[in-house]
Amino acid sequence: MSSSLAGAVETIMKELQLPPVYCSAMCGNALNDLCIEKCDDMSEFEMKKGMDLADLPRFPLDEFLKTMSAEERKIIMAVYMAKTADYLQGYKNDYQPIIRRPNTHSQASSGIPTAIESKDLLHASETAVTLFEIGEERPSETVRPDEMAGTPNREG
Fold first, then answer.
1. Which of these, 62, 48, 58, lies nearest to 80 by C-alpha position?
2. Domain that holds residue 15
3. Given Cys at both, which of 4, 48, 91, 110 links 86, Cβ 3.0 to 4.6 Å?
4. Are residues 76 and 141 in the same domain?
5. Is residue 59 located within the same domain as residue 127?
6. Can you give the pLDDT at residue 91?
7. What pLDDT, on the 0 to 100 scale, is given for residue 98?
8. Could you tell me the CA-to-CA distances from 117 to 104, 121, 122, 127, 128 in Å, in that order?
9. 3-state class of 118 per DSSP?
């Protein structure tokens, strides 16, 4: 990458103020307007609902020791300590997102018609006519092509 392109990318990243990976993986405001425009130093951090210890990213030790501010360190420690304590004490996060069922009784929905005739549902092979009646023994288990229903007789 050329130095001018690298400089342009760095300028764009500074202007956008994208959150660090460890923050965006845990924060409910990740990459929304509040995060991009106002949040620096994790001041707008809100824990995502439904996260357990196993859902958290690896502890960002290098960033913690080298680049994080005191406020960021406090929030990261609080999150990891709370989730670790919950895990050790056996608390499970019981958050269940609300899933709505489709309303099949509304005028707009296309339900299944009530009167479906069973003959329309049968496969073509089930309604085919054969040369042998049910229970009649066949001369052999192998059926020759001229014995099949709907096949023109070539002998005569």
1. 58
2. 3-89
3. 91
4. no
5. no
6. 86
7. 65
8. 22, 7, 10, 14, 18
9. helix
User: Which amino acid does the sequence have at 82?
Assistant: A
Tell me whether residue 98 is in a domain. no
Q: Confidence class of residue 140 from pLDDT cuts 50, 70 and 90? A: low
Q: Please state, in angstroms and as integers, the Cα–Cα distance from residue 44 to each residue in 36, 63, 72, 78, 141, following that order.
A: 10, 19, 11, 15, 77
Mean local confidence (pLDDT), 72-82:
93
Structure tokens at 40: 């620096």
Which residues face 85 on adjacent strands? Answer: none
Q: 82 and 17 in one domain?
A: yes
Task: Express each pLDDT in 107-133 by its tens digit.
Answer: 655 555 566 565 655 565 555 555 656
Distances (CA, A) of 124 to 17, 26, 128, 142, 149: 64, 56, 6, 21, 13
Q: Are residues 8 and 61 in the same domain?
A: yes
Please state, in angstroms and rounded to a whole number, the distance separating the CA atoms of residues 31 and 100.
26
Overall domain count for the chain? 2
Q: How far separated are the first and last CA of the chain, in Å rounded?
A: 82
pLDDT per residue over 79-101, tens digit each? 999 999 999 998 887 666 666 66
Residues 74 and 28 in one domain: yes
| Co-location of 17 and 80 in the same domain | yes
